[in-house]
Design goal:
This protein is 44% helix and 13% strand. The chain is built from 13 helices and 10 strands.
């Protein structure tokens, strides 16, 4: 089995807990994210709020913070008059804010009982569709070539990698083509960069663009940068089905952080439905299916992560079987 790199300490504990929706908690704290930049807007308007949300997720039990860079890009920030250097600075800032939150949380609990591993900072690498701000990441039909997608991602990856996160969270990827483009862009940076790649689904076996999940995973699994694979921002039961299947075709650690089963209204820029999902139950099902890292995506918050962490802890205390 490939060395999972920075994920190893989490995997040694049994199951690692990811954070929940960054935008979800920012909105609950009063941020207006009805904007093409979505959560990346807060990097401009209120970076301290990003730190507060990350820190609260650590307090809730998260072992990994995913940065506010999901929708951050040169085209997006150019609409606000920010040039390439300014965009690169904001991408690096997203990593710095998560690291600041982690350091603050560690200082606050210095000397406290417990043996949690040091939390990780995962720099979010969202799909091209996120920049379009029209829900395209849930269809994947951009009409772009692999080369065009590679060049788009390369411009974001360089400053993110330069900021030295613990790993990259290549997430909400709707197609094998885009996954391959990101991996190709990573390869141009030189040494392998520890990363997970998670896909968004149409159903338990198909990606958002209709392609086979199997094919996408096989297309990237040999990359030395890939430390884990899985699914995110998909309906809970589709994620459970997908993880169970992935466990049968790959030995890579599996990552799963579904949303609450809601649907994205791209015009209104809001999620609808999914409120009655118990994320602790979902996490337990995902772990049973083979997931080694579990959390929540859009619509999930601190209470969900706390419930997930409690479920993970209870399962660990119960031991095998």
């Amino acid at each position: 089995m490939r060395d999972p790199g920075p994920l190893q300490p989490l995997l040694e504990t049994g199951v690692g807990v990811l954070d929940g929706g960054l935008a979800t908690e920012l909105e609950r704290r009063g941020a207006d994210l009805r904007d093409a930049l979505w959560s990346a807007r807060v990097l401009l308007d209120s970076p301290a709020a990003v730190v507060d949300v990350h820190r609260a997720y650590f307090e809730a039990g998260a072992d990994v913070a995913i940065t506010a860079s999901y929708q951050a890009s040169e085209p997006g920030f150019a609409s606000r008059g920010i040039d390439r250097d300014g965009t690169a600075a904001l991408l690096r800032l997203s990593v710095d804010l998560a690291r600041e939150a982690r350091d603050r949380w560690l200082d606050e609990r210095a000397g406290a009982a417990g043996d949690r591993p040091t939390p990780l900072v995962a720099a979010s690498v969202g799909p091209f569709g996120a920049v379009l701000a029209d829900g395209s990441e849930y269809q994947g039909d951009y009409g772009l070539s692999r080369g065009a997608l590679r060049d788009f991602h390369a411009a974001r990856l360089e400053p993110l990698v330069d900021a030295a996160p613990d790993l990259l969270a290549i997430e909400t990827i709707p197609s094998a083509l885009e996954a391959e483009a990101v991996i190709e862009a990573l390869a141009f940076l030189g040494d392998p960069v520890p990363s997970w790649c998670t896909f968004t689904l149409r159903d338990g076996a198909s990606l958002a663009d209709g392609g086979a999940l199997d094919d996408a995973v096989h297309a990237i699994a040999d990359s030395p940068s890939i430390a884990a694979v899985g699914v995110n921002c998909s309906a809970p039961q589709a994620a459970v089905f997908a993880i169970r299947h992935l466990a049968s075709i790959t030995t890579l650690p599996l990552v799963a952080y579904p949303n609450r089963g809601a649907e994205w209204n791209a015009e209104a820029k809001v999620w609808t439905g999914g409120d009655d999902v118990d994320m602790a139950v979902v996490a337990t099902e995902l772990i049973g299916a083979g997931a080694a890292l579990v959390g929540g995506c859009c619509g999930t918050g601190h209470a969900d992560v706390r419930a997930i962490a409690t479920a993970v802890g209870a399962r660990a205390a119960a031991g095998p079987g």
